[in-house]
């Protein structure tokens, strides 16, 4: 029986998360969520269960015309890097969830790297 798109997404998401748990050395996790209209990211400390920083394309100060495009993802990536530095985080793991690493997800990761985050 063939799996649905949602089931394949869930399998990918769990596979990525389990790999991150195995190599977790106390570093926070940069978790990405992409919907049809927006993209959001949060920096999570799994040891304490606390969100250290977050950014989203819904924020008014980004000035994004189309919220779900590569430009918006780039701005969100640079914004999360800036907020992570304010929170005292320089190194983290990139949790792409079940999303494939290309397009908006890749643009967000590259912008966060350029902003100074290491992963």
From TrEMBL:
DNA-binding among keywords: no
GO biological process, one term: translation
Primary role: This is one of the proteins that bind and probably mediate the attachment of the 5S RNA into the large ribosomal subunit, where it forms part of the central protuberance.
Listed name of the protein: Large ribosomal subunit protein uL18
Family label: Belongs to the universal ribosomal protein uL18 family.
Entry-linked SUPFAM superfamilies: Translational machinery components
Superkingdom per UniProt: Bacteria
GO cellular component, one term: cytosolic large ribosomal subunit
Keywords for the protein's UniProt record, in alphabetical order: Ribonucleoprotein, Ribosomal protein, RNA-binding, rRNA-binding
Single annotated GO MF: structural constituent of ribosome
InterPro entries on file: Ribosomal_L18, Ribosomal_uL18_bac-type, Ribosomal_uL18_bac/plant/anim
Coiled coil: none
Classification of source organism: Bacteria, Pseudomonadati, Pseudomonadota, Alphaproteobacteria, Rhodobacterales
Pfam family, one: Ribosomal_L18p
Quaternary structure annotation from Swiss-Prot or TrEMBL: Part of the 50S ribosomal subunit; part of the 5S rRNA/L5/L18/L25 subcomplex. Contacts the 5S and 23S rRNAs.
